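Record format v2
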Amino acid sequence: MYIYIDGKKISAKDGESILEVANRNEIYIPTLCHHEALDDVGACRVCMVEITHKDWGGWRNLVTACLYPVEEGLVISTSSEAVRRSRGTTLDLLMARCPTSDVIRWMAEENGEISVRYEQIDDGSKCIMCSLCVRACERMGCNAIGTVGRGHDKKIAPPFFENPENCIGCGACAAICPTGHIEVNDTRTTREIWDKKFNFVACEGCGEPVLTEEYRDYAIANRDLPADYYTTCSACKKKKLASHFDKVGS
Amino acid sequence: MNAAPAVDMKQVGAVLARFEKGERSHLVHLLQDLQSEIHYLPGEAIRAAAEYLDVPLNSAFSVATFYKAFSLVPRGETIVKVCLGTSCHIRGAPVVVEDLRIGLGVGPGETTPDMKYTVEVVNCVGACALAPVVIANTRYIADVKPGTIVKIIEEG
Amino acid sequence: MGIANRKELEARRKALHKANENVKTHVRVCSGTGCAALGAFEVYDALVKESKKAGLPVQVELEPCGKEKDPLFVSLTGCQGFCQIGPLVHILPDDILYTGVKVSAVKDIVEKTLAGGQVVEKLLYKNPEDKKRLKGRADIPFYKGQELVALEGCGSVAADSLDSYVASGGFSSLAKALKMDPDQVISEVEKSGLRGRGGGGFPTGRKWRSCVSAEGDERFVICNGDEGDPGAFMDCCIMEGDPYRVIEGMIICAHAVGSSTGFIYVRHEYPRAVERLSLAVKTCEENGLLGKKILGSDLDFDISVARGGGAFVCGESTALMRSIEGSVGEPRAKYVRSVQRGFRDKPTVLNNVETFACVPSIINEGSDWFTSRGTEKSPGTKAFCLVGKVVNTGLIEVPMGTSLRDVVFGMGGGIIDGRPFKAVQTGGPSGGCLGEDHLDLPVDFDALAKAGSMMGSGGMIVMDDRTCMVDVAKYFLKFLMEESCGKCVPCREGVYQLHAMLDKLSRGEGEPQDLEKIQRLGKEIQVSSLCGLGKSAPNPVLSTLKNFREEYEAHVNDKRCPAGVCRDITTFTIDPDKCTGCLVCKKACPPDAISGEKKQVHIIDQDKCTQCGACRLVCKFDAVVTN
Ligand SMILES: Cc1cc2nc3c(=O)[nH]c(=O)nc-3n(C[C@H](O)[C@H](O)[C@H](O)COP(=O)(O)O)c2cc1C
Ligand code: FES
Ligand code: FES
């Protein structure tokens, strides 16, 4: 099927979202709660686009690109006046909530609106409740953190706000967080995250930290890979592989 | 948190046994039964429920904190629910909250130190025609006039 | 004794009628939430006891083989509507409505009326206008102009008795529907023009049809009894008062769409509704009206009752389904509709309690009968919960298209204490406030939407000059802020900011440009939010801003709350010319800020006063004034 994004005719497949098609064609749509590897939830609302169709009698609508499934002949605008207004308001609201977040400010500047109009909540938090961390943790199979409460007071936290039993210190939550809200303190031998301390496994080759002991144990128990897979860092793995090929070559 | 009394795990077990093991869709229902039995949801009970229904603890905690029906802290003997539905609101419910605040010394969501009363506000209890309405445990008190509620409650 | 097929259903009904033939008098004690709160159960017990003591042949259950001769049938019904002056006792066939019945009055009723055939004057409704006592429902203005469809059995059938429902014609509609082709059933509902009573007004027949045409090996039927609107209790009354009607409507739907599993999701603040529905479901199962091969047809259908957990957002269809699945009630985007992929990703029909309650009558009486009332685009009747500052409050059902004036000043009897009317709020937290100039508006889905409010589930809250529109808007925003699921940004952060701005206004700190800001943010929240909660959250503030702008301006420009509600900018004083020194306000004042002796002018100590307004509320002489 064909759809039109910002005037360009683009081929798309049934079941794809607008965002997938746009990304494949390098058309930029800002996102904050989307990740290729995770299911979309439509929480941040910055991927808003305006859609219409020649058969809709002029009717237009704002929808989130990450969730909206494409259909034949769909006409999409990624930066119409209505889109910019909606996105601008959303980003303004987020700036009021997380005034210290650079990512949000940059995104707002790019959208063309930097007027801070709302009551600032300066509690130092950069969490925008996109829930990427929770979804990543669930995908890892750990379920160590989740949403707590609802409404404006909603938070992301481990159960009972205690340090999480199930956390293996993989750091996926911190890595995926778009605003850098989740704190992770690494030394050469230890990691601290969600108030929980971990020891790193040192690489058998170079001694650099590879992963936490808990992560290693978890991976050995749950994935089908040899145990020594987890005791070498990726750089040394590459080296080892390279030398292996050298040997084979000679 | 108030000093929580020890949780009777037998009581918890008896509630669990009423539900099908591993059936995640019973979570809300089960927590509700636990709450009506123990009057609040102690951590141990949430953990036991999660394990029993095979629900990850993070989801169980999300559910327990999402719904207003659940309380994670112990509550008083008498739960005084002041309706703040629209009808009650415009017919003087805020005054009732004020009366309780002064008379019992606690505001919405708080429990008196002697664990006798917990004041809660709720949205519409289906008796709007009698607004403002207060429910003390299961007793409905209708058309509450200013300055009267504390006495009515204390007299039982 | 089960009801295996249509014949047995008919036989059961005939037997009940026969046993009923010689029942001379029906005594119906209302046990709706309101009357129960006022002591209806005690009154019922006393009535039965006293009647027996007086040697009257009392019967409390409809028994196919009634033993007594000329029995007196005493039953507990659902809400009879006029909650405000309950407990109500309605005596038939003479149509005597006793109001405010206390246990102490029961003896009189038994001796004078039930045994002696006389009317107890002092228990009759007193018309506030001319102080005349009015005997029955036929005479009382509150009941005039009403037409009961969804509420037909509410207040007449015995709420927890299957026999009572069957005797009143219950399940005959199901029997008729089962004889029809599913497609015919859907066509009939389509032709009736029935629109969803849960708020949106979506055509019910069309919803059912798209569910049928959606692909799926399993289909679900869900009844939405979450009734989250804070200030409405129609669905509560139907579930408590006529649970079998809802179940019958659901079974008909199951037949039409081909479903074998149903759920009723009930708000947790309605314990009695949960209890009655659960009992009704169980009774239906025992009698073969739920389960396998219902009434001898090929239809298998089961219903489970699910309790909500106290979250307004769970009234939203996708959140409700997640809640039944045992999860947090976060809505999801509806780009794929629930009729196609709903509960457990299967095609699902979700309808409101009142919608299902309309179905049996439509099938029984035909779509023409239904469309003969109401307006062209909104046929039928609608139940409303008439509350607030109106003389007569309670549950009513009127044909669509009845004017607001007829409701407020006809059935409602006007404003309490003859104060000026200011507004009617409809549609709850998603709706709006309509003022004087909208009083002649015919109430239907489209007219209300056009006027900037909405039908919603049927809450109708009347406001007088002492209700502040800024305060009302702030009230709804606070409600929504707490009830937002917190998932999407515009709703979670935007409603918070709207509330913060209104709070600023109510403290007298608003600036002229704030009104523009409120309007702009409100509009963006409407288009950007994920679910219906956020999309409609700005309605109360936008509609009051549009219809009562001068009141907002008074808060901003004069730092004054004309209604005397917003505490920070209101001072209460006592008008010495009007004060009679009756001590009432002094007693009512929570912080003890009022001084004065009996028969002397009272004075409010401004340092102690918390501006709660209790004094003004209780003063009979209008002596408490605000700036
Ligand atoms: C925030 C929100 C709350 C809702 N609450 C209710 C409710 O309490 N009861 C209800 O029947 N519908 C409610 N609805 C509407 C439902 O989503 C749904 O449209 C309705 O139940 C469908 O039934 P109907 O077509 O019979 O009206 C709500 C919608 C939203 C967005
Ligand atoms: S990326 Fe689409 S809503 Fe966040
Ligand atoms: S608003 Fe209080 S009972 Fe409905």
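The radius of gyration of chain A is 22 Å.
Residues 132-247 of chain A form one domain.
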